[in-house]
Amino acid sequence: MKQLEVHIMQQSYMLGCPEGQEARLLAAVKHVDEAMSGIRDAGKIRGRERIAVLAALNVAFDLLDLQVQNSQLSQTADALQAQAAAQSAAMVEVQAQTAPGDQASLDWDAPRVQSVMQRLDAALAPAPAQPADTLGTSA
To answer: Which one of 72, 100, 106, 120 counts the least CB within 10 Å of its CB?
Structure first.
């Protein structure tokens, strides 16, 4: 385990960090430092402990909000995959019932199927992170 010296609100801390995870730890430190400095700079709260608690609550709120969004995206993706599977099964059934000479009549569906698949791919792509509202910083 590697030891890193970091600074949060001009105070030094020695933190243990697993090998190869230094960048993640430094990103987390930067996030916490920015959250705490923002609360301090708003001028309403002075105590380091109170600032830390509010920053922790804001970070936890953001994390829970992301988890809710992830859950909703997962449910939407599952529904879209089920819909795509049902449409695919229906197409297979129609093709199986179509006589070989009638196969040309199904060609008009190919662009529509491609369009549906493209929309499904777009829906399953990760959404860009949106800034969440933060908790109030009043005492």
So the answer is: 100
Let me know: does 59 contact 31? Beta carbons within 8 Å.
yes
Ramachandran sector of residue 11 (left: φ over 0; alpha: ψ -120 to 50; beta: rest)? beta
* Residue tagged 């995959």 (tokens): 81
* pTM (2 d.p.): 0.55
Q: Give tens-digit pLDDT for 44-87.
A: 888 999 999 999 999 999 999 999 999 999 899 888 888 888 88
What is the CATH T-level fold of the domain 2-97, as seen in this structure? Double Stranded RNA Binding Domain (3.30.160)
